[in-house]
Amino acid sequence: MSAAIYGRRAGLDVLLLEKGATGGQINITDEIENWPGVQHATGPELGDMLRDHALKFKTEIRFCDVKKVELRGDAKVIITDKGDIEAEAVILATGAYFRRLGCPGEDSHIGQGVSYCATCDGAFFEDLEVAVIGGGNTAVEEGAYLTKFATKVYIIHRRDEFRADRAAIERAMSNPKIVPIWNSVVESIEGNGPVDHLVLKNVKTNEVSNLEVSGVFVFVGQSPHDECFKGLVKSSKAGWVIVNEHMETSVEGIFAAGDVLDKHLRQVITAAADGAIAAMSASAYVDEQIHLRSTLLEPESVTAFFYSSPDATQSHLSNEVEKLSKEKGKKIPIVDGYKNSRIVEKLKIELPSVVEIKKGAVSKVTKVVTEADIAKALS
Ligand SMILES: Cc1cc2nc3c(=O)[nH]c(=O)nc-3n(C[C@H](O)[C@H](O)[C@H](O)COP(=O)(O)OP(=O)(O)OC[C@H]3O[C@@H](n4cnc5c(N)ncnc54)[C@H](O)[C@@H]3O)c2cc1C
């Protein structure tokens, strides 16, 4: 929704596709206290505020399930259960989900003591005892973080040693507030209203016991919602989308933002910031595409210079073209083929070149190396 707000304010036609509730994961958060400017809100309240903000700028919201995002030539096509949509640019912001334990009492206590995020909910457990479930780095590190608030943090692990880094384990084990419970799994989460206790089973002895805690932090993994674009853009092994600082994916015109990214901190504020950057990058991309079409493909005839900006020699040649263009009083479009690789591929041009285009089709390509070549090609 932050991408929608920024996109609309930048003058884009924004279509926001949502299969569930606008607001995403925050809808299942009871309280949110770390969104700057709003000292306290329920998750659904913040979700509504964000949606209303997006609607104020006339974002079109369409409720549908995106089944697939694919490229058909230059076009980006979004296949939904309510029909196909073609877009000039796409922002993938499908979020992520926390893997569940799957035991009785888990779902019904989300927001009532069951949490998947220490940064989000740790502060609600000041002076209380909590349990962490898991044995990897997240469980051990977040367990240590929770000792800032809780009086005791039990770390319940199904094995007899943690899978985390040695340094993280040493830090956690030297903390007197951390109490590991080995070889144990959670059978159920109990409590009439808020969490009251856990029923644990020792997997070696089959002994069942109760553990009184006010909170349970489940860290058994998080996964991206990447089902509808798997394989389309470059991702990590686990499926998290890889972007650069402009939120550009490996595919031109496809951007990504929020929890679906390969990133360090998955929070509303970081997702919102990513969304803002992605929208501004998408806006620049769309403007550039429109500009390229109107300067290169739509005129009867045009002579343009194509180069690659990271190459210092080619950049120097582009300055030379600009100078000649001014001297001759003739507009010569200069196209950075590095940033616009699709048009370079489409026109099958080698860089750097002076290219003559007639009615959208290349009629002549002159490869250039020196300033003299440029002067000759443009004479
Ligand atoms: C229990 C809980 C508590 C949290 N507490 C806090 C907190 O206190 N503070 C904080 O900052 N963060 C908190 N977070 C994290 C925060 O909610 C996320 O970081 C944030 O929502 C990420 O936003 P997002 O837009 O990237 O993804 P999401 O919120 O996951 O939104 C993605 C949206 O995409 C939609 N979608 C996915 N696939 C499709 C598809 N194929 N077709 C159509 N729509 C699709 C989903 O329905 C969803 O609405 C919490 C998370 C949880 C689960």
Can you give a write-up of this model?
With about 375 residues, the chain is of the alpha/beta class. The chain folds into three domains: about 160 residues, FAD/NAD(P)-binding domain (3-Layer(bba) Sandwich), CATH 3.50.50.60; about 110 residues, 3-Layer(bba) Sandwich (FAD/NAD(P)-binding domain); about 80 residues, Glutaredoxin, CATH 3.40.30. About 30% of the residues lie in helices and about 25% in strands. The protein contains nine helices and 21 strands. A five-stranded parallel sheet has the order 8-15-9-10-11, with helices on one face. A four-stranded mixed sheet has the order 19-18-20-21, sandwiched between helices. Strands 3-4-5 form a three-stranded antiparallel sheet, with no helix packed on it. The longest helix has 30 residues. The mean pLDDT is about 95. The structure holds flavin-adenine dinucleotide. The site of flavin-adenine dinucleotide (FAD) has 32 residues, from strand 1, strand 7 and helix 6.
Radius of gyration: 27 Å
Instruction: Specify the CATH architecture of the largest domain.
Output: 3-Layer(bba) Sandwich
Bound molecules: flavin-adenine dinucleotide
CATH superfamily of the largest domain, by name, is FAD/NAD(P)-binding domain
Q: Helix tally? A: 9
